[in-house]
Amino acid sequence: MNNINKYVELSAAMCKFYIILFVLLFSACDKDQFETNKGTFTDDRDGHEYKWVKIGDQIWMAENLAYVPYVCSPNSGCGIYVYSYSGEGAYGKNYTNYGVLYDWHTAQEVCPKGWHLATDEEWMTLELFLGMEFNDLDHPNGKGDEVNIGGKLKDADSGHWDEPNMGATNETGFSALPGGYLNKYDNRFYGLNRVAAFWTASEDEYYRAMNRKYSFHYNGRERESVLKEHGYSVRCIKD
User: Where are the transmembrane segments (predicted)?
Assistant: First the structure.
């Protein structure tokens, strides 16, 4: 009996050892994956591969989130919208190019494991790194044009942006794309090929939250407080 007990104890110890070894190896691989300046990762939920880029000390997705557990019609209010839902169906070319638009509440929940919706302050950290003046960071309207904030973030080569795509260099590799937005005042889509509009995770008041917008005719950025029911793109940031 003593030999059996020793065998069971040894087996349990070996099992624990291999579990710990697996966790350590997995953690090391995950860490190594993000030690370069750019790369790709796969969302385990649907197998979608995304580009990512390191800007300063932050790691951002370099593509709009395209996770689609379900799709809503514009007037349904269920929180996940594909830009051309009523024209091309759920998986048309605009989905391929620009991903999905989410309302604010849904946007809090859709980033892959290990990532999250960036806060207003995390966007400010990005903007400060790219040269914005500290006193301009919480300005409610357009700012950053004097240091070409929008131009440094906007995709410059894909042909998705309408002309003139002011200042676009994409020197950061962020590759902001003009997926437009869903306006819940009239349940219509606006800004395709002209505006990149992103949620932040930060509330402004009960019905409103902060966003970021980049336009084809402006090389700065806009920071607005908007209704949480609107549909905007999502860029996740690494935990």
Answer: 7-28
Q: Which residues contact 36 (CB under 8 A, 6 or more apart)?
A: 54
∠ CA 49-210-142, nearest 5°, is 100
How long is the chain?
239
Q: How many CB atoms lie within 10 A of CB 184?
A: 17
- The terminus-to-terminus CA distance of the chain in angstroms comes to 50
Tell me the CA distances in angstroms from 61 to 52, 98, 187, 227, 237, one per residue in order.
4, 13, 28, 24, 6
Check whether the bond before 69 is cis (ω within 30° of 0). no
* pTM of full prediction above 0.90: no
**Where do we find the tokens 């009960």?**
206
